[in-house]
Amino acid sequence: MDCRHAWLALAEDQGLEVRMTAQTKTAHLIERAAQRLRGMEDLARSAPLPEGAEDPALPASLPPASPPPTSPAAASSLFAPAPSPASPPPIVAPPPTSASLAAAASAVAPVELAVMEAAGMIPWGRKRERIAEEYRVVQGQILRAIDASAKPGSCEGNAGMRNMVMITSARPGEGKTFSALNIAASIAQFGSRPTLLVDADAKHNSLSHQLGLVDVVGLLDLGAGRALRIEDLVVPTRLDNLSILPIGGRDGTRAELAARVPVATVVERVGRRFPQSVIILDAPPCLSTSDPSALSLIAGHIVMVVEAERTRRGEVEAAIDMVQACPNITLLLNKSLLTTNSTFGAYYY
Question: Segment Disordered: which positions (predicted)?
Answer without folding.
Answer: 47-91
